[in-house]
Every structure is written in C-alpha cells, then in structure tokens.
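Example (one chain per record):
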Amino acid sequence: MARIQVLQHVAFEDPGAITPWLLQRGHEISTTHLYCGELPPSVSEVDWLIIMGGPMGVHDDAELPWLGAEKAFIRACIDSGKTVLGICLGAQLIANVTGADVRRNAETEIGWFPVNPVGSHPLAKIFSGNPVVFHWHGDTFAIPAHAEHLCRSAACENQAFLLGNKVLGLQFHLETTEEGVAALCADCNDQPGQGSWIQSAADMKVKRENFPAAQALLRQILNYLERTLPPL
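Predicted structure:
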C-alpha cells in the first residue's frame, strides 16, 4: 500500500477515474483541498503525489496565497524522489518548479481531440494509435530540461513529458468522467467559448464512447507509475 497525496485546486476537478483504480490496488488516498485553505502534509508522509487541474495559472501567486507553498511542496517531492503525476495545471506546475516556461498557448484547446506520440519511450508508445483524449486548457508548458517529450496535438506541441522515470506531466485529462465533463461545462455556464479547437458543451457531453478508451490509457499510465513506487 502506497500513500497517495492528491492536491486539488477546485471542487469540480477531482481525481475522477484515478480514485477507483487506486482503491482497487489498495492504496491510501489523502486529499489536500487547497481552495479551502488546507496545506499539504510533510513530504515524508507521501509516496506518490497527484496534482490536479484548475482554472487558475501558475503565475497567479498574488491572487492565491497558497500557490507558493504548493510549488515548494511539489519541488520538495521531486527532489525527494517521490513519484509525481501532474494533470493540466498540475503538469504546468511541475514544469514551472523545474525551470521550464509556462505561457499562453497559441490556441485554446477544449474538447475531444487526438494526441500523437513523440519519440520511442514506452510511455510515448501508449499514444501510438493517436488516441482521442479530453482537453481543457489555454496555457502550455515548455518541456523541462532533461525530460522526455511524449506526445503532441495539432493545437498544442507539448502535451506530455516524463522527467527521470517518476515525474509525469499530462496536459490533457484521461481521468475525466462524464460527471467531470458536465462539471467543467457547468463552471463555464455551458459556454466554453469559440475557436478552432473549442467544442461546444453539447458536443463534449455526448461523446460517451471516448471515456472507456481514455480511461484504459489512464490505467496503463498508472500501472507504469506504480512500478516506480518504493517496495512495500
């Protein structure tokens, strides 16, 4: 059993399909609700850190008094050799604390779009079928120094990276459930905006056939990361 620490930035972006996988494997899950003023535990109490998404940005320190402490905690977990998974904002935070640039992407990417593998790493090969995955982001990260670039999309060059063998950043949301997509759409009053890479809320919600395939990819990635945990 590993000690999993989740950092959650807003109520409507939770671990989704990650939670049942972790529970099935017998792992212990704790969640820090940063938006409620909670602070992360000691790094020594964590085996695996999972950093969720959120509508804020990595440079919003002035508006978010907890953001600086979160960044320090993420950096400490990486320096301590913990397994770390960052999703969307979580991936951008990993990039930020490891010295990579996080900036506005040329396109806002919202909806179900394919990603394409980059390189020959085993994790890149997971995306060899150009799977359709769920996106919701306006910012993007540069690939951190010494990290493997794993996949891209037509709208965003940098979609995933692996730093060492234990720190993974995903710009997209494999964990999203039907309820999760509905919650994201509700947060924007079903009006995600307009653009070449923005789908309507109605289109996003009806694509139920995409969830099982995305969650199958998620399980492959979680299986990979689980192997990096310390032995029981």
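Caption: Residues 109 and 197 are 5 Å apart (CA to CA).
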